[in-house]
Amino acid sequence: MTATTDIVPDSERRGFIGALPRGSRPYASLMRLDRPIGSWLLYWPCAWSVALAGVDGQWLLFLWLGLGAFAMRSAGCVYNDIVDRDLDRKVERTRLRPLASGRVSVTSAWLLIGLLCLIGLVVLLQLKWVAAVVALVSIAPVAAYPFMKRITWWPQAWLGIVFSWGALVGWPAVTGSLAAPMFLLWFGSIAWVVGYDTLYAIQDKEDDALVGVKSSALRLGDRARLGIAIFYGLAVLLWAAAVWSVRPDWFAIAALAPAAVHLASQVMRADPSDGDLALRLFRSNRTCGLLVFAAMLVVGVTAR
Questions:
Q1: Closest CA to 299 of 114, 103, 51, 23
Q2: Which domains does the chain have, with CATH numbers?
Q3: pTM of the entire structure?
Q4: Non-local CB neighbours of 14 within 8 Å, separated by 6+ positions
């Protein structure tokens, strides 16, 4: 029988990771370098918040926060795999992950997290002190997230808190203070994350039920499309409220129309029994994030 440590997933034999030196491939897999969608989804709330705050000439913030999103998402993936390594061994889709298969030691994984956090520290030092403090507070919910699927049917809501945190960082990074629009953006982003991560969880329903972990997709069952529609609708309403608080103008609200149409299209196409389709729709939220960013940038710049 072939040793588990000799078996690697196809993703490490081809594409970007397959082109890397053999010894670095398991670490690249830990960081999900072949799946940048997570970095994009973590980044967009940061960018929305900076854009809605009016940028104020601080265009480099977009690049710094992008680097921070990449580093922190990568660190979060490694941490999640450390916590979930025993569960991952029981699931077909995840059993070949580097920690679950034993190709990377837990000590090496923690060292990788340390290196990624050093990158995050460099980014932190570029921010105004209020934004830096807010960013540091996120460590607590990030650390708790992997355990939520063992506790609640709604781990997606906790992921929403974590993945939307950038909305609380971007605004004070521009203005140096906290304000209502960033909180409205944050709550709207939480609803958006619950919606798109419910889509993502559809593909794992059978495995999650088998190993005994919880998800909104399992809780909603055949009503998943309705649930996603409700959360997406709430997201658009809260984003509209954030826009209105900066520029009380119906034309400004109309800037969100493309994003609203995109989300409605996801809902119309979603099928709680089709995991492959759900994954494609989940990934399309990178485009949704771009559409919301365009709206926030137009509103933020013209409101000044």
A1: 51
A2: 21-302 (1.10.357.140)
A3: 0.93
A4: none
